[in-house]
Write a structure and sequence with these properties.
With 387 residues, this protein is an alpha+beta fold. It folds into three domains: 101 residues; 81 residues, Helix Hairpins, CATH 1.10.287; 158 residues, Histidine kinase-like ATPase, C-terminal domain (Heat Shock Protein 90, 2-Layer Sandwich). Helices cover 57% and strands 17% of the residues. It is built from nine helices and nine strands. The strands form three sheets. It has a five-stranded mixed β-sheet. Strands 1-2 form a two-stranded antiparallel sheet. Helix 3 packs antiparallel against helix 4 and helix 7 packs antiparallel against helix 9. Keywords: Coiled coil, Kinase, Membrane, Phosphoprotein, Signal, Transferase, Transmembrane, Transmembrane helix, Two-component regulatory system. One of its GO terms (molecular function) is phosphoprotein phosphatase activity. InterPro entries: BphY/WalK/GraS-like, HATPase_C_sf, HATPase_dom, His_kinase_dom, HisK_dim/P_dom, HisK_dim/P_sf, Sig_transdc_His_kin-like_C.
Length: 387
């Protein structure tokens, strides 16, 4: 395990080479010194009994033998030093692996900091600093989550506070319009009251969209994981817009592969696709067509929405899903009481809803064989497995 590291391998190789060089040097130098002194002898003294007779035994050893012993000692010392280095390195790498495993658990969502494992040393200091960073990041995450929840609660309260006066305005407007219509002497006022009702509906839709975005950001939306049939998804998304498509003079065509579908939340998927269809309808001139094609392969379920409008400006493509972003073509359209321009949250809401289910939403321009833009294209991809 330790030898897999290039630096350790280089250190071990250097230690082995230096040990061999040291052993060779010890052998050569010791042999030269002993050759210069004419050899060496080993004196053994023995004492026998009470007479204390002493016998001296002289053992002659050759210089090469002594040099070989010195070389072996030097080599053994180098190998022992290398072995100690390997053992200490293994301990350090084991500690680093434990630290990496702790970081992986933190990235997976755990927040346990093992203060009992802290010791002295460089690695302990590093682990302590890493734990401090983790603690600070956890505190920051908690603060951000609290802020998101506070924003979600505030928007929820605001939306509930707005619903009551909006409902009262809608009822009062309807009663006044009916009374004036019965009298028949103020057609212009009746028409203006209809406009007030339409604008009041737009305000309600805007408040609802902002509330949904806030709930998504705060992470309080509970998504259901269940099989979603692509045909049912397209049908439910188009139903609320059928009348609007007829009034706008835009055709709607579908091509859905039998059995195509994915695992997700049908209700929120309908919300996302409905926003995309509405955007395509609003940017498609009368006589145009919005087409939806759904397919499924081994990797994912893909839903492609294409219109025959002017397409998306190239400068707007990187920002098309940004909240409250309005492109150059939208800015060129004059706002009026009858046709107020959008505020740029429909596509952002759609992307957030798709991303919350593990899918992706991209935008591009459709082109013909000559490279001319023939409309905008939105592609939803719901993968079967997320790595």
């Amino acid at each position: 395990m330790v030898l897999k590291n290039r630096e350790v391998r280089c250190a071990v190789a250097a230690g082995a080479i230096l040990s061999a060089i040291g052993a060779a040097a010890a052998y050569g130098l010791t042999g030269m010194l002993l050759d210069g002194t004419g050899g060496t002898s080993l004196m053994l003294a023995t004492t026998a009994g009470a007479a204390r007779d002493t016998a001296v035994i002289s053992l002659q050893t050759s210089p090469r033998t002594v040099a070989l012993v010195a070389a072996c000692c030097a080599l053994a010392t180098g190998l022992i030093v290398t072995g100690v280095f390997m053992a200490l390195t293994a301990i350090r790498y084991r500690a680093l692996n434990d630290m990496a495993a702790n970081l992986d658990r933190v990235l997976a969502g755990e927040r346990d900091i093992c203060l009992r494992d802290m010791r002295e040393g460089e690695l302990a200091i590093l682990a302590s600093e890493v734990d401090k960073v983790i603690a600070r990041l956890n505190l920051t995450v908690d603060e951000l989550q609290a802020e998101k929840l506070a924003l979600s609660d505030a928007l929820t309260d605001i939306s509930h506070q707005l619903k009551t006066p909006l409902t009262s305005i809608a009822i009062s407007t309807e009663l006044i319009r009916d009374r004036l219509a019965e009298r028949g002497d103020a057609p212009e006022i009746v028409e203006r009251l209809r406009l007030v009702q339409r604008l009041q509906g737009r305000v309600e839709d805007l408040v609802a969209a902002l509330l949904k975005l806030a709930r998504i950001d705060a992470g309080v939306i509970k998504l259901v994981k269940a099989p979603v049939d692509a045909r049912e998804l397209v049908r439910k998304s188009f139903e609320p817009l059928a009348v609007a498509f007829d009034i706008a003079g835009v055709d709607f065509e579908t091509s859905i592969q039998p059995g195509a579908g994915y695992e997700g939340d049908l209700a929120w998927s309908v919300e996302a696709l409905e926003n995309i269809l509405k955007n395509c309808m609003e940017h498609t001139p009368a006589g145009g067509t919005v087409r939806v094609r759904a397919t499924e392969d081994i990797l994912a379920c893909r839903i492609r929405i294409e219109d025959t409008g002017p397409g998306i400006d190239e400068a707007d493509l990187p920002h098309i899903f940004e909240r409250f972003y309005r492109g150059k073509r939208a800015d060129a359209v004059e706002s009026s009481e009858v046709a107020p321009v959008g505020v740029g949250i429909g596509l952002s809401l759609a992307k957030s809803l798709v991303a919350a289910q593990g899918g992706t939403l991209t935008a591009d321009n459709a082109r013909d064989a000559s490279g001319d833009v023939t409309g905008a294209v939105f592609t939803l991809v719901f993968f079967k497995a997320i790595v």
